[in-house]
Protein 1
Amino acid sequence: MERVMSKAIEFEKENFWEKFVRYGYGFKKNTSLKKAVEYSVELFRLAEDSIWFVGGSLDAELWANPEVIEALTAAKDRNVEIRIIFGPMLDPENNAIRDFWRKYKDEYDDDDRVHLYKLGYRPQSQFTVVDGKHVRVEEPHIPRQPRRAWVRHNTLMLARRLELDFTALVSQAVEMTQEDQL
């Protein structure tokens, strides 16, 4: 009985804090692939200037989803800068992100608005920053396992902090070129 009560109290605490973060700070939480796609697409549609994201292997479940690729393509067509960091390798099943990157490197190489960077290690944090104010931060997870992430709009302080992390990661990464094998 004690164990059951302990679990119930633990659940209530977790539920309380999730509600507190969500309502107190305006965060939206996603715990499913469907919500991850929905919130990522929402962020990419808001983009007016830049989309910067850091992912591990950019797993195909999320990053090759047709809605996500369509939203990235629409952002690129609006002349939004897109910078992507992954490491140490792309998900072998994620041909969509490879094709997206190659298409824009082929067609628009002169405008230099799509960049893909490779780290020699898996980044500890995975996040997206849009226009320096909208963010999506994933909790650490194993690829192909349930993911949890938090999304917040108009959060300049958090976005600026993540941009610093992004800049530090870019300095450690190698920018991919057309000749590189992904």
Protein 2
Amino acid sequence: MRMRSTTGQEIYIALTSGNSVVIGTDYREVPKEFRREALMLVGESIEIDGIKTEDINHEPKPADNPEKYLVDTIKKMIEESKTDEKTSNFTASGLPNLNTLRSKAGYNVNKEEMLVAWYLIQKELKTDDEETIE
């Protein structure tokens, strides 16, 4: 696997076996025994075959509008529950399962964010019902 440093400085990796490697600004083949340690140096900005590790290992960010992103994610969970009764996307009280939502959203959603998104879905459904009545 070819790696290089994108910080402009050399990155030194040493193992407890006494072996070491230096990853410089030019691509170099990194021996297998050092790859794990090199991949863990996310903050050092190592590039692997043209892909920056911080692009791979960062915490996914929601869309520009996180409320809409969560609303859309919960709607997908609702659709999944309709097609597969075995999925546990919702709690016994009917709220979205927070752990499942975190997994589907791809980031650590807190309870308040989930409740706001759930409220927006309920409000949207109520508005849709009122429009069909009129």
Protein 3
Amino acid sequence: MVQFKQQGHWLDNHNVLTGVACGGVLLLVACYFYLGFDGNITGFFRIGSEFPHSPFLDLDRAFIFNGEIGHDGQQFLTVAFDPFLQHPGTLDALDIPSYRYRRILYPLLGYVLAGGNREIIPYVLVALNILAAIGLVRIAALFFRRDRRDRSWMPLMMLCIPGVWFCLLLSTAGLLAACLAIAAHYYYKRKPVLATTLIVLSCLTRETSMLYWGALVFASAVDSHRPQLKSLLVGGILPIAWIGYIASRPDLQRNAALAVNDNFDVPLLGIVQKLQLGLANTFEPKMIYEWLSFGLLFAVFVCLCWLWIFHRDRIKDLRGFAISSLLTVGLFSVCSRTVLGYYLDYNRVFIMAYCLLLLGLVVVPCSSYLARIVPLLFAMSGMSCLIYFALAS
């Protein structure tokens, strides 16, 4: 592959990759917007007919999926229409208010950037995820920029991650949270204040990003990097305070226990139950894609463990990555069958697992088995995305 070395040139490698990613993402979104949703932007929010709707949603103009309860995008749109809870009907339209409001940044950005105009808010939310998808490729290009080996194409593999497309097409917050968290890992120790700002914003987008905040805090302490550690500790006050505030609001506590009981279980129990269910339905055609998706995710976690166990002598410069990877593996181990039951759910939850694995290859020699297996794994993931697009259309 041709390498563009001249700094500042418009054909500089990471600029080319960003442009390719931008074109690919915009093309797919345009196809869904015009062909899948008949030019109706609310189609990206998977609004069902069976669950209460936001009082600010124009049902006559919205793209409604009849017979469905809706998806997480419907919940984010409800919060974006009324982030300050000015209408009592907003809470009625949320399944678990405390759970939804902990993830405030994505819908709040939609409201603020749209100037409170509810006609524009859906467009802004979709645009944010488009930028996040392109941002993942851009950040990956920055990681691989110093790699002297001919692997400059690898950042584009970020677009092979199924969860990236599922978040984009369902308008959920996982993609933005992952982009912010990966950017925080890149700027860790390079620009302490910026790294802290990014990880704090990620925590306000998705509360599970507190794991990655903790990973960076621990890495800073081990590396004795006091400016970064001090910045992270001060910055962590904001998401912790926000979680505490949400917990203190009695009006937000309806079904609050479900967010924990339904999503987490005894370590490995959810995985075992998932495998048992698969063995009982192995020959059903509808399960083939489900098992392809879960098998790929499971392989990602196996490779992630392989990366940081057998290449641990190379992690000094990526200590935050290593700790974040271990915490992500731990999160996977305690997920319930509810989370692991459906490919649209677990692929969105574990975008970070794919990101950490791909970017971890920066420290892996090209001659290693892992450096050969991971691109193949991502290629298979990309194929699974194409299969999804074909079936969904």
Protein 4
Amino acid sequence: MKSGLSIVRQSDVSSETAAWTGYLAGTATIQTAPQHSVRVTVSSRKRCYLEALKLHLGSGHKIGGQRSSISDVCTLVLSSSKLVETLSQLGITKERASRKAHPRLARDPSFWSGYVEARGSLGGEYPAIHVTGPFQLMHQYLEWVRSICPTVRTGVTPSGSSSKSPSTAEARSISCGPFASLRSSLCPITC
């Protein structure tokens, strides 16, 4: 399997690679023992995402499925120490609460598009994007949103075990003309 995400030292990052890195930031469970692996579990309706990720990475790993009365999911487990190391260099760590995007990715719209695809939703009473994730990552997201649309109403709402040092947060971005259509126009992940 080629890493497909070895972008730390490259000056040009493809939008597809940045989007997949964002998607993995939102969905991946990373293990370092007993074996280095990246696990992505999605609903069976989104199996095509796992197929597209395999294609992007050049992976021959199989996609497993599990169907029960309460869930219908597909899982891709990528056993690769190189992939785990690369994701860690990009801020996508085993500890979800401490995930923070690499500075290059924090400015990349494709990264955020992939992340919103994984952890976000559109809608509400007003045109809005709602995203959940680690507190530091949500602050990076809001910085990026404000950089492309300074007039957008945004905020981070802490959640988790302690409001003084929250591990997760929800970011909301509301009402910015060009921002409302941003997600659908930027995301290069297709299936």
